[in-house]
Specification:
Strand content: over 45%
Number of strands: 23
Number of helices: 3
Number of domains: 2
Radius of gyration: 20 Å
CATH topology of the largest domain: Jelly Rolls
CATH class of the largest domain: Mainly Beta
Largest sheet: 7 strands, antiparallel
Distance between the termini: 25 Å
Order of helices and strands: HHEEEEEHEEEEEEEEEEEEEEEEEE
Shape: globular
CATH superfamily of the largest domain: Galactose-binding domain-like
CATH architecture of the largest domain: Sandwich
Length: about 290
């Protein structure tokens, strides 16, 4: 039997046996719509000013992955719609428990990521909160200011080990700054008026679980796939040769990678695949 086929049997057994979710905020919870012409059910907006949010939120029916649509945000072009400071964030009950943020004791960090495209600028960040929902600024981690393009790109940040830092934090709230941002003097750093932004596949990887299969330990590889299924990105800090197998056990692609590096899967046929690097594996659908 082919080596790759043995690997696939082991991974299927592993996935079936393991009840632990690696992705703390899966698409099934964050990409459902009661009203296709409104905000996704489990997301809302946040603003500290009385200006409100001058934008519309709809289900992007032309952008799907695994049956889930992207969130489309159209910001008003009225001379100031993109200058209103506001964030997109999960509804209150969907915050991430601090225990899942810290990792598993070996890899003491969580990786927050989202795929985005469109026009304008956005910033991804996570902020710690106490049990009374007050914010802990020392537990805030943010990405660089990202210039969006017409192609999907991954925005990600590594979160700190909050317990090790000795911070009084109960959970972490995910936010994306889509409205304006200022430089502290009141001058606008950017203006998203008239811009259209797409978001998809929000993920927070907070665990590096491993399950024994016989005498072999097979560890799950943390990956994310672009909404158009053209790119695969390894979220953890892995270095080595990434090998991709089809379900027949044939090696269909291999590439030297480092953590955060994109692997093109645009040329693969539709179907289920296994990606392996070092002792870690993951299953994905093209």
């Amino acid at each position: 039997m082919k080596k790759g086929l043995l690997l696939i049997f082991a991974v299927v057994a592993y996935v079936t046996a393991s009840a632990q979710l690696v992705n703390v905020i899966p698409n099934a919870s964050f990409e459902t719509w009661t009203d296709a012409n409104g905000m996704a059910d489990n997301w809302t907006t946040y603003t500290k000013t009385a200006n409100g949010v001058d934008a519309t939120f709809t289900q992007a029916t032309d952008e799907y992955q695994d049956g889930n649509a992207s969130l489309k945000i159209t910001i008003a072009d009225n001379g100031g719609g993109g200058k209103k400071p506001w964030d997109l964030y999960p509804a209150l009950g969907a915050s991430i428990p601090v225990g899942r943020v810290n990792g598993d004791g070996t890899n003491d960090k969580g990786t927050l990521s989202v795929w985005a495209k469109g026009a304008g600028k956005v910033m991804l960040f996570g902020i710690g909160r106490k049990t009374d929902n007050s914010e802990v600024q020392d537990a805030k981690v943010k990405s660089a200011l990202i210039d969006l393009t017409s192609s999907w790109q991954l925005i990600s940040i590594d979160y700190i080990n909050i317990d090790a830092a000795g911070l009084d934090v109960d959970n972490v709230m995910v936010r994306v700054n889509c409205g304006s941002n200022t430089d502290g003097t009141g001058a606008y750093i950017y203006d998203n008026s008239g811009k259209t932004i797409y978001f998809d596949n929000f993920e927070f990887i907070g665990d590096d679980d491993a399950t024994a299969i016989g005498s072999t330990k097979i560890q799950k590889l943390n990956i994310t796939i672009s909404p158009d299924k053209s790119q695969l990105v390894i979220l953890t800090d892995e270095r080595g040769t990434a090998e991709i197998y089809n379900l027949s056990g044939s090696l269909v692609k291999q590439q030297q990678v480092e953590g955060g590096q994109s692997v093109s899967i645009a040329g693969l046929q539709s179907g289920m695949y296994i990606v392996k690097i070092n002792n870690k594996t993951a299953k994905f659908v093209k």
